[in-house]
Amino acid sequence: MPVKAVSRFFQGSGKRKLAALAVIAMLAAGCGDGEETAAVSSSPGGGGITLSISGTPPSQILQDTQFTYTPTVSNPSGASLTFSATNLPGWATINPSTGRVTGTPTAADVGMYSGIRVTVSGGGESVSTPSFSVQVVPTATGAATLTWLPPTQNTDGSPLTNLVGYRVYWGLSPSDLTNSITLNNPGITIYVVDQLTPATWYFATTALASGGLESGFSNIASKTVM
After folding, report:
1. Could you report how far apart the first and last alpha carbons of the chain are, in Å?
2. Which residue segments constitute the domains of the chain, with CATH numbers given?
3. Least confident of 38-42, 88-92, 181-185, 208-212
4. 3-state secondary structure of 9
């Protein structure tokens, strides 16, 4: 089950940040079936356009992996907004206040889901995205190879002596890294994240010290899988 990313810092004598994540090496740049979905955008017609909705929903999602999509809304009037969805898969739900669609399909949900629309309403207007499709797949062939520099000091400049490993995070938004894996080996400086579907993926890593302490995120790196 993917773990929600939480940025933390070492406390006391272990206080430090992990050295910056190196540029991703495209050593395992496999391709998934299909292409990334183009951005969808819609706004009401006529000369009084005030409300619009746009975004780039993922075209594929791997089974047992969290799907997340939040459309971008332009609301110049500042009206109170509500969101709804049409033809949403049974494994997904929409937050009526934010429009964020989430869900984790299982092996039983593998297949194509078409005709999905997200609608936003407010200020007497209602506008929807063009319909889009999401395919749940049992496996994916995209991958990204991450490398980083082993930390040697705490943020206070003292030597780091209690490093026990790293945690790698990744997801479809730099602010929402919903997947993670813990590497219980301080000697590891490279990791391949595989089973990536077509999309732009974002990655970060943290350092782990004894006592369960975790650093803040490294820089965010990204890779587009086609």
Report:
1. 25
2. 12-30+140-225 (2.60.40.10), 40-137 (2.60.40.10)
3. 38-42
4. coil
Q: What whole-number distance in Å separates Cα of residue 96 and Cα of residue 72? A: 14
**pLDDT, tens digit (0-9, with 9 covering 90-100), for 60-104:** 999 999 999 999 999 998 999 999 999 999 999 999 999 999 999
Count CB neighbours of 98 within 10 A: 12
Chain position carrying tokens 């049992």: 138
Identity of residue 178: T
Backbone angles phi, psi at 97, to 5 degrees: -95, -30
CA neighbor of 69 nearest in space, from 77, 60, 57 = 57
Which one-letter DSSP state was computed for residue 223?
E
Residue 96 is given by DSSP the state T
